[in-house]
Write a structure and sequence with these properties.
This protein has about 625 residues and is of the alpha/beta class. It contains 27 helices and 12 strands. Strands 2-1-3-4-5 form a 5-stranded parallel beta sheet, sandwiched between helices. The protein has a 5-stranded mixed beta sheet with strand order 7-8-6-11-12, with helices on both faces. Strand 3, helix 20 and strand 4 form a beta-alpha-beta unit. Helix 7 crosses helix 14 and helix 9 crosses helix 10. The radius of gyration is 27 Å and the shape is flat.
Length: about 625
């Protein structure tokens, strides 16, 4: 195990990979609190190669730009983020300075090619699942195995001997590393990225991503671990033969589900990873041959897998006996399903509410099984799941009672794989149609309501504010309600920013509507330039904006608020021969256990906003958790 004392010894060797030259100067500049964007651009422009690489990232699909960025500007840097720029420059410097070394047998070129591919994969997968900003995801994937380069640099002879016996790119190398050095390269990677100032979230993800169950964590952190693990495995199988890749790719679909990525998304993102990697390697002057697309062999999934992978929600396995649950969980896992265990009674209701499963498999033994079926069917989402009872030699009257209480189908034990697949496929078809019909009905009712209001002259039914182009308050409430429901099932973080332009009412009263509208337009442009792809900007009230931030914790939310303030303070509004300096008071809030509805989250942000105003305005205040 790598403790702090051992890491200090590694640092003392002065051989650990580290940034140099312009990169070091820029990294130090980014760490200053008062650094300005023009200062960063001036330093960056002394290194055209780094500028080109940053523009390559800025033009990637994750940022969804309407026009390609051709040169560095404050807007480009703000969209990526100052700290993300620092990490990118660090990464590019490490690649440039460590393309060869003294460790014989260590394939430096292929190490960096695989690192770039993992970075591209982590960025694409993590952005799809809204786990972190794209640039930070790229850096995470790129540096996950930097500890291996460090060990090859500090211990060139010893590490050459080790990789002479074990595959450099296999996970099996960790055990002999521990035996030979007392620590693994993964531990060194985690220590190095912590030293370089990456978020603690990323440090933990690197340390535990190969064994998420040992982290003791859940929610976003585990999904990020699964995402990183998936990117690495996609990178690894990219170099296999077509036949081997096809077999290995099927096994990655379940891991994709755990990271919040569907099969179709996984296939598309895997192909995009190959394209992005080829472009990155070309820019970084590293040789990467054209690799065949994953979609070229994924047209014919294995028998029995189609329906299981197509399910959008997990299977809930409810029973009192752990051995019974384990048997079914193992079988479902073998078939490619995401399955979760639960005991009877209240636990089943809680898990059904959280997971929102399509299928529930329940142990039909005694009256507790019947009671749980009734309670599941009567619950809020009980009408949208397919309940299959599993029983041994239960009598017909028990089955009849179960049908009356809401059971849809049943299976006799021992459960055969073919029979289970058929029942699950039938349940999936029925529930999918039910959900589609309910959604269509809800959409129709909402549309009728909007048309009715619109016919009466109620302009609030419009989705967008006509001046700023942002979503309006009506949409903001609806969207926040949707994100709230999604978070209850996925355990992702959800945060909001409430931003009020300082002294907006006074500007309106003293300088008129024209100036006030210009101020609104200008500040909305600042928000749009600072917000990320996944963020949802809305005009909440007169002079007040609401930013909905799915998948973002309070720290990232506060950082975004500070970026918006910094960008606003650097800009001056000139209109009708008048000059306005712009400030804003911002309240930040993250969903917590104390928030029983999304209105409570809004109230928390409003309280934080009022506190920011009372403390002198032009600042970001996080709500008390």
């Amino acid at each position: 195990m790598l403790d702090s004392e051992k890491f200090l010894e590694l640092k003392a060797s002065a051989n650990l990979p580290s940034p140099k030259g312009t990169a070091l100067k820029l990294i130090e500049l980014c760490q200053r609190e008062n650094v300005t964007l023009p200062q960063l651009i001036t330093v960056l422009q002394t290194d055209p190669a780094t500028v080109g690489r940053i523009l390559k990232l800025a033009n990637s699909a994750s940022f969804a730009r309407t026009r390609p960025a051709a040169s560095l500007s404050p807007d480009i840097l703000m969209s990526i983020g100052i700290q993300a720029i620092r990490l990118l420059v660090l990464s590019f410097s490490l690649i440039a300075e460590n393309r060869k070394g003294e460790c014989q047998g260590f394939d430096y070129t292929h190490f960096w090619i695989r690192s770039v591919m993992t970075g591209a994969g982590t960025q694409l997968l993590g952005s799809c699942a809204r786990l972190a900003p794209p640039a930070e995801l790229f850096t995470l994937g790129l540096l996950v195995h930097i500890g291996q380069l460090a060990m090859a640099t500090v211990f060139p002879r010893e590490y050459a001997e080790l990789i002479g016996k074990f595959d450099q790119f296999s996970r099996e190398v960790s055990a002999p590393e521990e035996q030979s050095f007392g620590f693994t390269h993964i531990e060194v990677s985690a220590a190095m990225i912590q030293e370089w100032g990456l978020p603690k979230l990323f440090t933990d993800v690197v340390r535990f991503h190969e064994n998420p169950e040992n982290s003791g964590e859940g929610g976003r952190k585990v999904r990020l671990m699964n995402c990183l693990d998936l990117a690495q495995k996609l990178t690894g199988i990219s170099f296999l033969s077509d036949e081997e890749r096809e077999v290995e790719f099927v096994g990655l679909k379940l891991l994709g589900e755990r990271a919040g990525i569907s099969e179709d998304q996984l296939l598309e993102l895997a192909d995009r990873m190959l394209v992005e990697s080829k472009e990155w390697c070309s820019i970084l002057e590293m040789p990467l041959d054209q690799l065949p697309k994953f979609s070229s062999f994924s047209g014919s999934p294995s028998p029995g897998k189609t329906d299981s992978v197509g399910m959008s929600r997990p299977v809930l396995v409810v029973g009192e006996h752990s051995d019974w649950r384990t048997t079914l969980l193992d079988l479902l896992g073998k078939l490619g399903y995401s399955a979760h265990p639960s005991s009877m009674g209240d636990a089943a209701l809680v898990n059904a509410e959280i997971l929102d499963p399509e299928i529930v498999l329940i142990e039909l033994e005694g009256h507790e099984g019947l009671r749980t079926i009734s309670r599941l069917r009567d619950a809020g989402n009980g009408g949208l799941c397919y309940i299959i009872a599993v029983c041994g030699d239960c009598e017909e009257n028990i089955l009849s009672a179960a049908l009356q209480r809401g059971m849809d189908d049943y299976l006799r034990e021992p459960v055969e794989e073919r029979t289970l697949l058929a029942r699950l496929a039938a349940g999936h078809r029925i529930v999918s149609k039910q959900r589609l019909l309910m959604q269509e009905h809800a959409d129709l009712q909402k549309m009728k309501s909007r048309f009715s209001k619109f016919a009466k002259g109620d302009s609030s039914v419009l989705l967008f504010d006509p001046l700023t182009g942002f979503y309006n308050r009506s949409y903001a409430i609806d969207r926040l309600k949707q994100e709230w429901s999604a978070v209850l099932r996925s355990f992702r973080p959800l945060s909001i920013l409430l931003l009020e332009i300082d002294q907006f009412a006074s500007v309106y009263e003293l300088r008129g509507k024209e100036i006030a509208d210009a101020l609104l337009l200008h500040f909305s442009a600042v928000i749009r330039a600072s917000a990320r792809l996944a963020d949802i900007p809305c005009l909440y009230a007169e002079g007040i904006f609401l930013l909905i931030l799915p998948g973002t914790g309070i720290e990232g939310t506060v950082r975004l608020g500070e970026r918006i303030l910094a960008s606003a303070s650097e800009s001056v509004l000139k209109v009708s021969n008048q000059r306005l300096e712009i400030g804003a008071s911002i309240g930040a809030a993250e969903k917590s256990e104390g928030h029983h509805s999304f209105y409570a989250l809004i109230n928390a942000a409003e309280n934080a906003l009022e506190l920011a105003k009372s403390k002198g305005r032009n600042q970001v205040i996080p709500a008390e958790s």
